[in-house]
Structure formats: C-alpha cells, structure tokens
Model the fold of this input.
Amino acid sequence: MKQVNGEIGRKVVTAADLKEKLEEEIELYASIYKVRKMKGFAFVLLRTGREVFQCLYEEAFCNVKLEELVEESCVKARVFVKPEERSKLGIDLMLRHVEILSSPTEGSPIVINQKRVDTSLQNLLDFRMVTLRNERERSIFKLQEGIVFGIREFLSNEHFTEIRSPKIVYQGAEGGANIFKLDYFGRDAYLAQSPQFYKQMMVGVFHRVFEIGPVFRAEKHDTSRHLNEYTSVDFEMGFIESFEDIMQMECALLRFVFKFLQENYQNELEILQVKLPKVNEIPVIKFMKAKELIRDTYQREITDLLDFEPEEEKLLSEIFLKDTGSEFVFVTHYPSMKRPFYTMDSSENSQETLSFDLIFRGIEITTGGQRIHQYEKQVDKLIQKGMNVEEFASYLAMHKFGMPPHGGLGLGLERFTSRLLNQDNVRYSTLFPRDLNRLTP
Ligand code: AMO
Done:
C-alpha cells in the first residue's frame, strides 16, 4: 500500500543556510530574476521565496549556455559557495549546474527586475501576478505578514482567543448604506461590514477574543483610503474599567508589533527603507477639543461638527508630531450621533460616546470604544436611533443572558501598512484590491 510519512525534502534555502556551506555545492530552487551580461561572464540573480541571490555565471563552469537562462524560468540550480569577504553576505555563489523546470511563454509586459516597478498604479494592479514578483513589491506583503504575526503573538500572550465569525450575515453591524446585499436562498442576507456582533457575543464566552479577517464595505466613492474588501484586525475584551483600557492595549500592541518587525523582518525593513515609529506614549485629545485646536492653529472654519474631514486628520497629526514627536494620536469622545448604536455614551454627557479613533500619520487607522452591555440600555439606544428592535433579537439575546462590561476595536490592516510605508494610496498595500472599478485579478 502506498503511504505518506510526512517526510519533507529541504527545498527552501536561506542566506543563513548558504553561509554554513562554505566551499560546498548547494541546491537552490528558484526563479531566474535577472541576467546581467558582463564581459566574459554574467550575473544571474536567483529569486527564492524571500530572498534574491546573485550568482556568477561562467560558461566554462556551467552546464548550460547563457541564452538558455531566460528570465522568469523556474530552475533547480547547483551553486558553489565561495568565501568572499568583500561581498555583503561574505560569500560568492558560482553557478555550476542548472536544470530548467519551466520557462515562460511570454516575457513580462512590465519590467519587474529593477529596484522599483516603474509604472502606473493601474498597471501595477492589472499585472499583480508579475509585478508582485518584484523584490520591493513583494516585501510590502511579507512585512504585512509580519504585522499580522506580531499582532497574533501579542494578543495570544495577553490571553485573547482567536475566532472566525461568519461573513454572510443577517444584518449589518455598522449602519449606513455601504453594505453589500445578497440573495441567500430567497432571503436577504449581507456581506459582513465587521465582525462586531460576533466578537461581542464571544466576549461572553472567552472574555478576550480577536479576529483577523476580510470585511466588506460597499463604498461607492473612489478614494485613496477606501477599499470594498479589506482585512480587519478586531479585538474585544471583557471586564474593562473604562474604554481607555482598550487604548492602553492598542498602545502596547503597536509597541510589540514594531519590536517584532525589527527582530524578524529586517530583510523587508531594509528593502522598503522603513523607519519604524517610536511608541512610548500616545497623546490623547477629545474630539471637540481637536476640532478647536485645528481651527485655532490653522484658522480653519469648522464645517462638520460630527466627524473629521480627511484634511483635518492630516492637520491634527501635524500638530501632534510637532508638539509631542508622536506619529500617533488618539481622539476620544466622538459624538453619539455619528457612532453606531452599540457604542456606550458618556455618563457625563450623553451627546458624547466612550469611543476613540487612532490617527497615524494623518489617517484614521482604528476605531474602538466601550459597548453597551446592559439589555435595557441597548434596547433604548436602538429605539432612540429609530431602529427596529425586533430585527436585532439575536444580537440582543446576549445582553439579556448577561454580559461583562466590554469594549474593543477594529484596525484596518491595509491602511495601517500603507501609513507605515508612507504610501499615498491604500491599494499599494492591498494584495488584490477590490474597489469600484476593480474585480480582477
Ligand atoms: P470602522 O468602520 O471605523 O469601525 O472601521 C475600523 C477601521 O477599519 C478601516 N476601514 C477601512 N479600510 C479600508 N477601506 C475601507 N472602506 C475602510 N473602512 C474602514 C479603518 C477603520 O479605522 N466595528 C468597528 C470597530 C470597533 O469599534 O471595534 C468598525 O468596524 O482603518
């Protein structure tokens, strides 16, 4: 009988592995990233899953002719590792044997093997399947992986349980018109705008939970910060004393994530030339105070009393960077009128909520706050907002059956990544963006 025993051959070689094989030959599975012809020899750059290795090709020492080494061919190569103090890795790699495993039938329509992919955003996204092979482009998503790993490790250390909630839902959690409607076997259903209801329900079970998953927003406007599908990092925690507990947790989380990237993603930080922000203390300001501060600093009239205009978020960041050196600022006590029905109002002023946004380098990356955990209060709030209480029966059941005081937040992973990398459009940090005009690739 044929059986498998879990034995996996070693097909992934890293720079660290190479350095341990001095004066030896090693097998590399790679794509030919670039062939650079010189006088009498050539440099052949081999791209593995995370790194690019430059190999020296000399016809006399290799089994194939240079013409056979076509860019984007996949190869099994044998290279000799020669110590060389002057090179960055301390070694030179000599290409000795190449077996071509597959070759492209067409050349890439866009040059992908320079430092940067020099093309429009439209092309970059249309040809994602190849433009992502560029060393710099793919580093964005490797780093994004690091952010997610860091968040997971931090939250897991803090005893949060990871959950997965449904994305086909019976009701929108965030209100507004930006919701996708589905035909669910003849009934109306929706694509989840957030895991809000489910993460709250799960606080009744695990006390601390988190989810990192896709959410959907039917945004009809084409902006540099909105996607129709994005990755939401949500956490929710019970037994809080105040919504500030959530802000403390986010501050510690950010500090941990940046340290985690520093320790594990040096390769990508270097390629992307990222300057990680310092997160010692994050300044906090109330929403109305922030509005006044922007008005007074920039002699700018307040036109919207309920929310920030994008320009105001930018200006607020500028003020805090200048005055405190912080690239983050928490804005608290957003108006009740503007916050979803699950948000707890302040006991001192019912027009204000116990909620916050985190602004990072000029853009909101997080919304969070304390939730209403008492049944009667939640029913009253729904009625006050003119909503149909019956429609929320399954959500309200948890309030009825008892919930601890709790709160949480949602952080947009793509927005966070794109601010970290100082990109001017969130799409650069979205693997395959979904927006008004884009459904492929
Ligand atoms: P909110 O709707 O503010 O809050 O979303 C939270 C965070 O998600 C990101 N975000 C987006 N990113 C890309 N494209 C979009 N269209 C988009 N919309 C939002 C932002 C934002 O700060 N349930 C609450 C969170 C909570 O209170 O726990 C919620 O979803 O970074």
Remarks:
- The domain at 135-429 is CATH 3.30.930.10 (BirA Bifunctional Protein; domain 2).
